Amino acid sequence: MSSLTLNVNGRSVTADVPDRTLLVECIREALGLTGTHVGCDTSQCGACVVLVDGRSVKSCSMFAWEADGAEVTTIEGLASDGSLHPMQQAFKEHHGLQCGFCTPGMVLSAVDLATHHADASESEVREWLEGNLCRCTGYQNIVKAVLVGAEAMEAGA
Amino acid sequence: MSENGIGAAVLRKEDDRLLTGRGQFTDDINRPGQAHMSILRSPLAHARIVSIDTSAAEEAPGVVAVLTGREMAEDGVGGLPCGWLITSKDGSPMVEPPHPALPADRVRYVGDQVAAVIAETREAARAAAALVDVEYEELPAAATLASATRDGAPLVWDEAPGNICYDWEVGDAEATEAAFRGADHIVSLDVVNNRLIPNAIEPRAAIGEYDSRTGDHTLFTTTQNPHLIRLLLGAFVMGIPESKLRIVAPDVGGGFGSKIHHYAEEVIVTWAAKRLGRPVKWTAERSESFVSDRHGRDHLSHAELALDAEGRFLGLRVTTAANLGAYLSTFSTCVPTYLYGILFAGPYTTPAIYVEVKGVFSNTVPVDALRGAGRPEATFLLERLVDKAARETGIDPVELRRRNLIRPDQFPYQTPVALQYDVGDYQATLDLALEMAGADAFEERRAEARARGRLRGLGVSTFLEACGIAPSAVVGSLGCRAGLYESGQVRVHPTGSVTVYTGTHSHGQGHETTFAQLVSDELGVPIDQVEVVHGDTQQIPFGMGTYGSRSLAVGGAAIYNATQKVINKGKRIAAHLLEASEADIEFENGSFTVAGTDRAKAFGEIALAAYVPHDYPIEELEPGLDETAFYDPKNFTFPAGAHIVEVEIDPETGTVELVQVTGVDDLGRIINPMIVAGQLHGGLAHGIGQALLEECQYDENGQLLTGSYLNYTMPRAADLPNFELGHNTTLCTHNPLGVKGVGEVGSIGVCPAVINAVVDALSEHGVTHIDMPATPERVWRAIQSSQA
Ligand code: FES
Ligand code: FES
Fold this sequence. Notes:
The complex is a heterodimer.
Chain A: E1 2-8, E2 11-17, H1 23-30, E3 49-52, E4 55-58, E5 71-73, H2 86-93, H3 103-116, H4 122-128, H5 140-156
Parallel strand pairs in A: 1-5
Antiparallel strand pairs in A: 1-2, 3-4, 3-5
Helix pairs in contact in A: 2-5, 3-5
Chain B: H1 15-19, E1 35-41, E2 47-53, H2 55-59, E3 63-68, H3 69-74, E4 106-107, E5 113-119, H4 122-129, E6 133-138, H5 145-148, E7 164-171, H6 173-181, E8 185-193, E9 205-211, E10 216-221, H7 226-238, E11 245-248, H8 264-276, E12 280-283, H9 286-292, E13 299-307, E14 313-325, E15 352-361, H10 375-393, H11 397-404, E16 413-414, E17 420-421, H12 426-437, H13 442-451, E18 455-464, H14 472-477, E19 486-492, E20 498-502, H15 511-523, E21 530-533, H16 551-577, E22 585-588, E23 591-594, E24 600-602, H17 603-611, E25 626-631, E26 640-650, E27 655-666, H18 673-693, E28 723-727, H19 745-762, H20 776-787
Parallel strand pairs in B: 1-12, 10-11, 14-15, 20-21, 27-28
Antiparallel strand pairs in B: 1-5, 2-4, 2-6, 3-5, 7-15, 8-13, 9-10, 9-12, 13-14, 16-17, 18-26, 19-20, 19-25, 22-23, 23-24, 26-27
Bound molecules: FE2/S2 (inorganic) cluster (2 copies).
One FE2/S2 (inorganic) cluster sits between chains A (97-103, 134-137) and B (201, 253-254, 508).
């Protein structure tokens, strides 16, 4: 068992989990934050992406104990004071989601991109999303949303 | 048009919850006291189960029970039924083998369920599943369509000689024969329609729960049609009356057809929950999805087109072998027959058509509906054949299509293969697509590409699909074991807010928004006071679910009819309150008015009067304002389109670059253009995936070679371009909204346009056909072999 302390969405939490627990299992099961999804078992789909210390990470591909002491942001922690984060807002306004299953991972990957590379071009956005699968949207509106969301984040920064 | 009404790009009501992690998917649900299930699946494509020793697994830490087909048979649990009976040419019914949720004696595909291991945690269940000791006697496998139809092929079912489930036909063989005798040109083509794995990003999941106090069963499941699952599971498999079986399909993460079907895991968790006296939860791992979600497509076809000297189509004959997999999944049998054979007129005036289809068993995952379901297969074959005919007759492919398209003055148009099209304007749709695609200047672009050493091609497809499934009387006469109407309930509350209950299910389509727009528009109630409920058999009167692009055309029509009943009742209440005759009451913009006066009652006042009947015609009218309608469509709807694809190929590597994808579609009336565009994008991506990337492959032993995202190529963002979309609208004539449907259009129309473009680009190398997916390897080999 590992006893971990994480800062999740701005709150310090502790969890006792078996050593083999993946970060995504810790988030979904121990912490009950079910906005982070599991779409595969080969680290290919990106439905499980969260931010660990500000960088997007596939939470199915690291152990929970590896995040001990880290700041973790899940989709539940992105909106503040009841209003959507600019990237969430852009996804809403540009119909960047349909079933919504890939969406948390998409949004958090996009936030990482926009934070570190605010002026990414359309083709850079498409390359960046290499690790995030969506079966519903054909990506067109996701890409548009990411471009608009990045601009909005930049303007608000 | 009101601000949020029909035609407005209203932002989706479902998005706030889905964007903030507050959606509730099946795997997000946990029930008190639940146990977790892991399914042990067959590692062999075909084998006799000699023995199953569960003792080691039962003793493993945390294990609650290990259940096999033996226990299931003891409890009298039935098999999974097939929803559509197909009758062969000779009048005999299809071979319909048993379909047990847990087979006891023989497994028939890699992934077939052998045992259910139930434990305190998911990890414990998975670990114990590895301890179940199964002794198999391996049998030879019929692993692919080609090998299953070979003489002397191993039999999947002893009762199905030659692995034939049915040998079906549609059309007039003699008339078609005669047409071929009088032809100036005969063009033929052999086509493989590649097998696909659906891959909704949410893996399937199910939770069974049983209340021994009341005898109530609840099943939470990732389904597109909760009432159909209740009917199949309750009436056919478990013998549970509808009143004791509740199906909840909460947020569902995409379906594309793969979540229509009734699955074994739904049966097992429902059965096990009662047997063990605690909720049982199962969530597929992705590798399980690959070997258990029903696959799609998988045809081998030969087709011939007869033309006269001017290029007019005289006759078409098609022979198809369709893989059904190892068992008959829910709608598997109708997909390659009634959703395929009757599509072969396409948008053309071909007077004589004859189609023969053999449904074939194989030792593979059952095959069933996948986005488009039969219609993409038919469209691909027809549009490839038309293109080949253009090349062989020397008539330009666009001109050849023009000569054969049904003209607007020919509607209603009766095809020789059962369907009657109500309306369309195919020439104008094609014209708009050509203009948007800049087809006029294509040869210049081709020449310019050639100068850069690249091969450029343009491909067109003009197509039509039958949607809005379906008129119950028609499908009933063809063997469907269900009616395909839909229900809609519009419940007006005392304060004038509205709850709408629909039997369709939304798993990405945005029904909560589109249907709210529709009701808001009809009743004049602000959209934020209209709530749409779906996915729960306990709340919704009845339903047939979502597939075949039916939700708006059938479900929306039911809701519309319910709003008209609400308005009619409201008029009678208003007539009383306003002391006028009912015939004089008009309803507009949310207000009941005595015609020609300013005496009026707002919708909210009528709602209140209906529930607070102090001054209310209680003698003539019941209190309450809550109306239900069942709508059974009079015909299919016929969305149609013209898709044009331009590609550039690098002859050194065989890589196909999509330069431009243009889709002009006639979808009937559009309620929410933003959602419609999204549906088109998704469908186009699915079709392009089939054309260029995706292919499910089995080896000769029936082992799945493409069982993960590492070797099954899903379209990713960088694989796709932005799509150019246009509309040329005619309104459906037989449903009250004039709508046709949009969910499948993209995947139906675009595949042949992509391959036609690839073949066009490669034509200077003498290539006349290439099978899907046109991977770099395949394209490169085609170029090499032409140079050899
Ligand atoms: S769950 Fe698919 S990448 Fe993590
Ligand atoms: S919105 Fe459904 S998978 Fe992306």
